[in-house]
Amino acid sequence: MSKYVIKRLLLLIPTILLVGVIVFSLMRLIPGSAVDMVVYNYSKSGITITYEEAEAKLGLDKPAPVQFVEWMAGLFHGDLGNCLFKSESVWSVISRQVPISLELGVLTLLLATVISIPLGLFCASHPDTLADNIIRIISVVLMSIPIFWVGTLVLVYPAIWWGYSVPLKYVSFFQDPLENMKMFFIPALVGAITQVGVQIRAVRTMTLEVMRQDYVRTAWAKGAKEIRVMYGHAFRNALIPIITLFGGAIAGLMGGSVVMENMFNIPGVGQQLVTALTNRDYPLAQGCTVIFAIFVMLVNLIVDLAYKWCDPRVTLE
Amino acid sequence: MDKTRKKKKHSAAYDFFVLLFKTKKVSFISMLILIMFILVAIFANVIAPQKMVNGTLVSNLIEGVKAPSLQHLMGTDAMGRDLLSYMIYGARTSVILGISCTIISTIMSVIIGVASAVIGGKFDLFVQRFVDAWQCIPGMLIMLILMAIFGSGILQMILVISIPGGIAGSRMIRSAAFAVKDGNYCKMSKMLGGGNGWLMVVHVIPNIMPMILMNLANSLGGVIMMEATLNFLGFGVDANTPSWGYILTSQGRTKMYTAPWIGLAPGIAITLMVFAAAMFGDGVRDILDPRLKGGMGTFDTYKIRKIAAKYAAEAKKKANA
Are the C-beta atoms of A288 and A272 separated by less than 8 Å? Predict the structure, then answer.
């Protein structure tokens, strides 16, 4: 087991390298470089600065491959360089803002799971009944509603009807958990809408697939209680594909949180990335994306390990 | 002899739609809704009360923010444009994007997946590692970066949405192609001197066609949602192109209270279109997915459970008596 984990962790290195290549080259493909931005900003405040001077100031005067190697080397040393437009290191920005996005993502997934698993199992245990059909159609509707639209409705109407508005000032969870939850609960609930739809359908399909198996039939036939059959036999075996889905969902939620952060004024990493992209702040944008990617890789690893935990038949190679 | 000749031979597509109609009513209705959207998009110039002039809907600020009336069935927006016309032209944007993105991304998936499976070896290894790495970067982030590279506009959006979709979908196509590639007829063809190109075009692609069509139908909903989301974030089409996502963010949000119709109409339209696309995709998958064949066994379990419950009740009655 530990051998497998070490092997997987080592395999991350080439993937990180490749992600680095993709991100670095994509960033350089964006038209209009940071240098133009700096020259423009200086000229606005009346200081003339040549293109070369600005380039040297930003450390962008070296050839791109050299920059890439230096950046990569820094990455493996845990040093992501400094922001171009802030007197702050990229790492400090990320370590401040990633937890915020992570909190939103985890809370969203948690809410979605709590709602969707019982409903999905209910559908699977009563297939093709009226309730099942209604839940299924509702879940597709949930998947189809644009969450940014619901977010707008949630921001506007409760404020008018009941004078309630979602707090828009960020408070850290450790400072004041209650205030923090007040701010995060509504965005997480709105973000969970799509996820609930996706998960209800997935749980239902996967569980039904398992319920066709002989051992489930045997369990019914020998007179096991419904709860035992559903949770002990069917659901446990359906867990593997469901866990895979959750792993993918975390990645999607972290990336997709840009919308929720944008709307509810949450200072997460998604917001930061959008600003970094518009400013052409290469180190910051690259850093954010690579950290995201590494996070996704680790989640994938955990998902694979979770297979083993929930299904002893799985052999990790 | 004559009888068999007289029998009308249906194409596979005809059989498919009949099956869809017979077994998946909701999916069939969804297909009709999609067709309706496409027709609206095609005949936008004929239907829309206010016509486009030089590619834009002319704004008329005096008429701004009017509630729905007989003259303007859905009211007008802040720029004084007839909202119904805006929605109709917006459908055109969504339909163009939806159709072209699904087609381009599926073609990309097929090229990457099939080539990777058939050529195999080092090429496959490299391509798969690249796909792995690409998949690790959250999709939304990559789209934002690509949007910054390509700039705004419909053509750019088509590229931005298709490229990640194509790369992500190549996985499924590759595994399907792998299963086909190891078939005896493929080996035989190779032995007879068929090259990789021949193998791909003549043997592999026709045999994974159901998978490809499924991919096509299933990605439609996601594409439409993606278009709306990108427009909402302000990374989408330019301000002159009518788009549901764009009007939602540019006016729907700020005018949500004073003029709710501006915000409600695009939201409902997006929901309806994505819903229809998802339902249609579902139906297509149920019919075409080889893994779901014989998937009717679910009913069997339910029946057994009922019987078990019946026996349990009888046993209880006996015990009581």
Answer: yes
Mark yes or no for CB contact A146/B275 under 8 Å. no
**Residue B111 pLDDT level (bands cut at 50, 70, 90):** very high
pLDDT at B292: 54
B228 vs A contacts (CB less than 8 Å): 146, 148
Q: Is A262 on the interface with B (CB under 8 A)?
A: yes
- Residue A36 vs residues A56, A57, A214: alpha-carbon distances, Å: 13, 12, 68
Nearest to A30 among B148, B221, B298 (CB): B148
Would you place residue B7 in the very low, low, confident or very high pLDDT band (cuts 50, 70, 90)?
Answer: low
Q: What is the pLDDT of residues B50-106, one digit of tens each?
A: 777 766 777 766 766 677 776 766 777 777 677 788 888 888 888 888 899 999 999
CA dist A50 → A30, A39, A45, A86, A154 (Å): 21, 7, 14, 21, 49
A274 touches chain B (CB under 8 A): yes
ipTM score for this prediction? 0.79
Could you give the 3-state DSSP secondary structure of residue A78? Answer: coil
**What does the pLDDT look like over A121-167, one tens digit per residue?**
888 877 777 888 888 888 888 888 888 888 888 887 777 778 777 77
pLDDT above 70 covers a percentage of chain B that reads: 85
Q: In the structure encoding, which two tokens stand for residue A114, read together?
A: 């709590």
H helices of chain A, in order, are 2-29, 34-44, 51-58, 64-76, 90-125, 130-144, 147-161, 177-211, 214-221, 226-227, 236-264, 269-279, 282-310
For B251-293, what is the HEC assignment?
HHCCCCCCCHHHHHHHHHHHHHHHHHHHHHHHHHHHHHCHHHC
Smallest CA–CA distance, residue B185 to chain A, in Å, is 31
A258 CB near a chain B CB, below 8 Å?
yes
**Contact present, B255 and A156 (Cβ < 8 Å):** no
Measured CA distances, A7 to A11, A301, A310, A316, B16 (Å): 6, 11, 21, 11, 47
Nearest to B299 among A29, A127, A258 (CB): A127
What residues form DSSP beta bridges with B128? none
> How many beta-carbon pairs below 8 A join chains A and B?
165
Domains of chain B: 11-289 (1.10.3720.10)
pLDDT of res. B297: 35
| Residue A53 to chain B, least CA–CA distance (Å) | 25
Residues 94-113 of A with CB under 8 A from B: none
Average pLDDT of the residues of chain A = 80
Tokens of A96: 């401040």
CA separation for the pair B53, B218 (Å, rounded)? 35
Q: Do B144 and A277 touch (CB under 8 A)?
A: yes
Measure the CA–CA gap between B190 and B204, rounded to whole angstroms. 12
Which pLDDT band, with edges at 50, 70 and 90, does B294 fall under?
Answer: very low
Q: Which of A125, A132, A152, A205 to mutate to test the interface with B (most CBs of B within 10 A)?
A: A152
